[in-house]
Design a protein that fits this description.
- The chain is α/β, with parallel strands linked by helices.
- It has one domain: Rossmann fold, CATH 3.40.50.
- The chain has 5 helices and 7 strands; from the N terminus they run ββαββαβαβαβα.
- It has a 7-stranded mixed β-sheet with strand order 1-3-4-2-5-6-7, sandwiched between helices.
Length: about 200
């Protein structure tokens, strides 16, 4: 089992020219603005390093973290937050696009969906976009702390059907608050990156 020994914030960037050199395999975290990206990242890292806010849409830059000096972890701006201007939303979209198109060392995307709601059209578009770019991804459902076993089984089926997922796409059910599913997700990330290097 992989252990988290060292985590550090590297930098925030807007344009590809400001990204750190692509010398390590990279995992990106993407999802709607209020899906709990920062909380999940902190749960994976076992420390508060990504800024958690009560206000959605706080991540406005591409934030790079280093994990065990071996992996880059990237927190991408959230999508679909209606309370910001159209111009601001376009800027975030462009940032995510630039990142996906310019990062050859990107090995895995964690596509986060909120377990309390059915995946949205934007989640479907993101999944289709990742497939069209042939970027490997897994689905991470957040905030499952209040669900019992049968509700979790129903949730997995709903996510699979709504996103029209291939049978072999992993779906992780997680709770940053209670630590549910975090160990399994971390183990999967390390195993996948080991296989790819």
């Amino acid at each position: 089992m992989a252990t988290i020994k060292k985590v550090e914030f590297i930098k925030s960037a807007v344009k590809p020219k400001d990204y750190p050199p692509p010398v390590k395999p990279e995992v990106a975290v993407v999802g709607r603005s209020n899906v709990g990206k920062s909380s999940l990242i902190n749960a994976i890292f076992k420390r508060s390093i990504a800024k958690v806010s009560a206000n959605p849409g706080k991540t406005k830059l591409v934030n790079f973290f280093s994990l065990n000096d071996k992996i880059y972890f990237v927190d991408l701006p959230g999508y679909g937050y209606a309370a910001v201007s159209k111009k601001e939303r376009e800027k975030w979209k462009e940032m995510i696009e630039n990142y996906f198109y310019n990062r050859d060392n990107l090995k895995l995307v964690l596509l986060l969906v909120d377990s309390r709601y059915k995946p949205t059209n934007l989640d479907i578009l993101m999944k289709e976009w990742l497939e069209s770019l042939e970027i490997p991804y897994v689905i991470v459902a957040t905030k499952v702390d209040k669900l019992n076993q049968s509700e979790k089984a129903r949730l997995k089926k709903q996510i699979k059907d709504t996103l029209d997922l291939p049978d072999n796409t992993p779906i992780f059910l997680t709770s940053a608050k209670e630590g549910t599913g975090i160990k399994e997700l971390v183990s999967y990330i390390f195993t996948t990156l080991d296989e790819n290097n």
